[in-house]
Write a structure and sequence with these properties.
two-stranded antiparallel sheet, seven-stranded mixed sheet, 5 helices, 13 strands, about 180 residues, alpha+beta
Length: about 180
């Protein structure tokens, strides 16, 4: 099925999911640009990141938005391309699968040779992109039917506010509620 192009804030996105992420970033006051610049890889090929974001602490990331059912393990060539891109660009890349939520996301890190894929959470306070550590491992569960991680916070708004921040939860609600002119 082909994604539905969606307009938000004067920008036409290739999918509704990308537009929801733009709403989320806007509500968090994270600066973003959409498909701002394509790159020719020194190792061959081209790459156009969906977003470039700048966080309030001035950290910058590339962002790739994928559908909720994106399986990185079945996309070895694509993941290799993302790793080459981050290494050449000198900036890490977030893979945001599905709509904005309180779940872990993948980060393709540019700081190491070879493939480096980490698991991070987004939050509305420093450091904004947090590596999953021992503390967070206690809050992760595995969805048996999909093999994907989720947090025990996913249905508890109070826990979400305490862990991810009040503004984060408000931004989730705004992204979910946006009607995009419908």
């Amino acid at each position: 099925m082909k994604p539905l192009p969606t307009k938000y804030n004067g920008t036409t996105f290739r999918s509704r999911t990308e537009a929801r992420w733009a709403v989320f970033f806007t509500n968090l006051n994270w600066e973003w640009t959409y498909e701002n610049q394509g790159y020719e890889l020194e190792t061959g090929g081209h790459y156009l990141p969906d977003f470039e974001i700048r966080l309030p602490n001035n950290d910058e990331y590339f962002v790739e938005v994928k559908p909720d059912d994106f399986d990185k393990f079945e996309q070895e060539e694509y993941m290799d391309k993302l790793q080459r891109f981050t290494t050449e660009a000198g900036k890490s890349l977030l893979i945001l699968d599905g709509n904005p939520s309180c779940k872990p996301f993948d980060l393709v890190c540019h700081l190491h040779e070879g493939r480096t894929l980490g698991c991070v959470f987004l939050q509305d306070y420093e450091p904004y992109v947090r590596w999953i550590d021992e503390y967070w491992m206690g809050y992760l569960k595995l969805e048996p039917s999909t093999g994907r991680f989720f947090t025990v916070h996913r249905d508890d708004e109070r826990m979400q506010r305490n862990s991810f921040g009040r503004k984060y939860v408000e931004s989730l609600k705004a992204a979910k509620a946006e009607r995009f002119g419908i």
